[in-house]
Automatic annotation (TrEMBL), chain A:
GO terms for cellular component: cytoplasmic exosome (RNase complex); nuclear exosome (RNase complex); nucleolus; ribosome. One of its GO terms (biological process) is nuclear mRNA surveillance. One of its GO terms (molecular function) is mRNA 3'-UTR AU-rich region binding. Residues 36-57 have a biased composition (Polar residues). InterPro entries: ExoRNase_PH_dom1, ExoRNase_PH_dom2_sf, Exosome_comp_Rrp42_subfam, PNPase/RNase_PH_dom_sf, Ribosomal_Su5_D2-typ_SF. It comes from Triangularia setosa. SUPFAM superfamilies: Ribonuclease PH domain 2-like, Ribosomal protein S5 domain 2-like. Keywords: Cytoplasm, Exosome, Nucleus, Ribonucleoprotein, Ribosomal protein, RNA-binding, rRNA processing. Residues 31-57 are annotated as: Disordered. Gene3D superfamilies: GHMP Kinase, N-terminal domain. Its main location: cytoplasm. This is Ribosomal RNA-processing protein 43.
TrEMBL record, chain B:
SUPFAM superfamilies: Ribonuclease PH domain 2-like, Ribosomal protein S5 domain 2-like. Belongs to the RNase PH family. It comes from Triangularia setosa. Its main location: cytoplasm. This is Exonuclease.
TrEMBL record, chain C:
Residues 9-138 form the Exoribonuclease phosphorolytic domain. It comes from the Eukaryota. GO terms for cellular component: cytoplasmic exosome (RNase complex); nuclear exosome (RNase complex); nucleolus. One of its GO terms (molecular function) is RNA binding. This is Exoribonuclease phosphorolytic domain-containing protein. It holds the Pfam family RNase_PH. The keyword rRNA processing applies. Belongs to the RNase PH family. One of its GO terms (biological process) is poly(A)-dependent snoRNA 3'-end processing.
Amino acid sequence: MATATSSTGAPPPSLTFARPVFAKLSPHPYLLRTLSPDSPDQQPTRNNGRSPQQSRPIQINTSSLSQAHGSSLVRTGDTTVICGVRGELLPVTSIPQFRPHNGTLYDQDEDDEQRARKELRDYDLLVPNIELATGCAPQFLPGVPPTTLAQTLSTRVYSLLHGAGVVDGRGLRIWYTPENKKEEGDMDVKEEQEEEQKPEVVAYWVLYIDLLFVSFDGNPFDAAWAAVLAALRDTKLPVARWDPDREMVVCRKGGDKGLDIRGLPVACSAAVFLEKEHAEVGKGEGNRHWVLLDPDRSEEGLCKEVITVVVDCSEEETRVRSIEKQGGTVLGRELIRGFIGVAEGRWREVKEATGI
Amino acid sequence: MADRRRINGPPGSTIPPVFEDDAGQPEIMNGKGRDRAPNTIRKMFLKTGVTPSASGSAYLEFEDSGKSGVSGLKLSCTVHGPRSLPRSSPFSPHIVLSAHIKYAPFATKQRRGYLRDPSERDLGTHLETALRGAIIADRWPKSGVDIIISIIEGDQDRETSKSQGDETWDMMNALSGCITVASAALADAGIDCVDTVAGGVAALVQDAGEDSTPRIVVDPIPSDHEKVLGACCIAYLPTRDEVTNLWFKGDLPASDAGLYTQLVENGMQASRNANRVLVECLGEATS
Amino acid sequence: MTVTTAPEAALGVLPRADGSAKYSHAGYTVTASVNGPIEAQRRDEHPYEAHVDVIVRPAAGVGGTRERHLESILQSSLTQIVLVKNFPRSLVQIVLQVEDAPENDYVNTKLVQASLNFAIMPALFQTSVLALLSAGVPMRATATATAVAIVSRDGTKTSVVDPSPRDVEIARSVHVLAFTSHDELLLAESEGDFTVQEWNHVYETAKDVCCRPVPTKEGMEMILDDEHTNGPDLRHFLRSTMENKVASDLHWK
């Protein structure tokens, strides 16, 4: 047989794209396909190859910066964040509405720890800030004021710092016992009746906690919180005392004291991926969902519902420090309780990475 | 300053810690001063691809010279582009470069705020000039490229708390680091350049001692020397033997006329050395 | 001892907005206005759905980071109940103005607070839902929210619905939960130090407040049960407010 011309009988070349191109062009169907494979022996996987319950390994390095009193670098996959803690001094004369320790405005039944927590909150002694505009991702370019995401993250870290009571405020106080001034010619003052002057707080340490995102690939809160905690554990403040002659606080070199950090709260986040958006679901149809642990940037863009749980398993009973669930109605009571169990697993991972 | 978009500290101003030892005696140099040969630059560590979501990125770290308290320089650079310019901008037949340098708040001895101050803008302008000579701009009309550098750790000695005007000399070192890291990130992004540009710093310093003569050293650490008389930062293209940016600051003694040229030559030599490291790192990245 | 007042609401208080509501409960008074669906800005428009934009203005001062967080929480919640797919490339704009907040002599009042204010969230939620109903924006369901705090009183832990600022300060944990009218959990925000069992108990309490089934008008069953004094019946309140409004609008008939 003579060879036919190429145009007849040959099928037209099929249009195929590489996988990453499909992932970019139609992300929702692509993720749906990988999460619901045809054959039952194939495990559901995400675009990055992880299973839905698998989170990225976390890597924590501390003490990398020498200009900061404490620092840490946390890497979860491609998300990299650097945290630096700097201490500065705040004399009580600069605090408006300062309440001295023995003031009657404080409740008498509060113990010192509670008072210290209030001081932290009232005098703004912990100042966390998150900087995303470092070019860590194409949507975070500098030159614009902080985006809503950056502000939300800063608020969440601030809320959690105070709510979980991680820093013991008593370590931030600088005490001074004023000397007894003997007035001359005062015949009534007898040696036995001399009262000891009570020590008073003259200044506080203010901790500026600055977080810088070097690279952003989803789930910023978990990485940011781990970095804050690691940096606070690493912080060593110089020993300070009040110098009455110069009327200022001076520090001594050497003998830096670490902060008293209580507990190890660890954050664990997930996003919920829905097969169909709510409005498209017809009556009587089921709507499958997958809970994706530690979502990356592309997955976060496809999911509306997110949950973050902060747990602390340092004691025998799991203490939950914070639950934040918003953006959807899939996660009910049972799923949240199950998720707290998953968070406990993440706690163990992070504890190992911190090296305690 | 109450920036309502950030969490502000206490309304009263806070003071950085003041150490007792500063009151009286001046800071004695820890040891011998500079321990490198006058023509040797510090070892550097350069890595590309640290930010996968950006078009190109690089991370640079200068060696910590082993003395306690002298920090190494740490820089991170990301390049986004070439990308289309916003609609409102006028037509441009070549690529529009915009460089943005920012010190992290914990980078230097004095805590810096989040808003850029004039010195950082100045560094950005110098960087733009340095890179403009290297990029083949005509290949990308109507496009822009953003180069963003975060200085994670400045080059200051933590022990000395007296400024001594050290900040300006540290900025020179920072600029040379910025040029090198930006060049690496541009290569990682695949933007066409005629050559790799690297930065080098040379300074005229005077050591402690009655009869010490000023000498020229390369890649200076200001705390190593009693006084820095002048310094210059050079951005140099070795293959073409061209200088794209030259920043000189200081006061040279009028006695020696050729001192300035010598200083610039040394700066170019430092730049050549840095370039070698840069090319080696890029070669490793592609292999 | 805090005086629990019943919630009060008024609809249509702002004549020029598409919809508006004023709600007050537990010391908080919030006014909301809703405009929409209206044309969206180029940068905000979404090709397949409407964009829900929430703006929260505090009682004093300009909003700071905490208001941005409240806005993002409300936005993600309200996007779930508004039928956004019906209005592509549109904008539903909700502005909430806090008019009154309970005074607290113990709390050191700073103008700009950074940590999240849990006690105000239910009021913001309720007001925005009422305003959306007043504007007639098509919704999938309505939603109600409540705040519960776990306080240690006399050694025992008790849960307090609609805590006062003093309660929030001394509480071991504070929680805000929101439910839709289909009894689904829409929002769960908690902070403090608690266990899973405590959260469970809080969930039950909040569900009881928000999702009590509407009482049937069958004589004997209208007897007030002592057990139900654990807070107002919000769903019933929402329904009766709307019924009153519709009745007054149609009174000419």
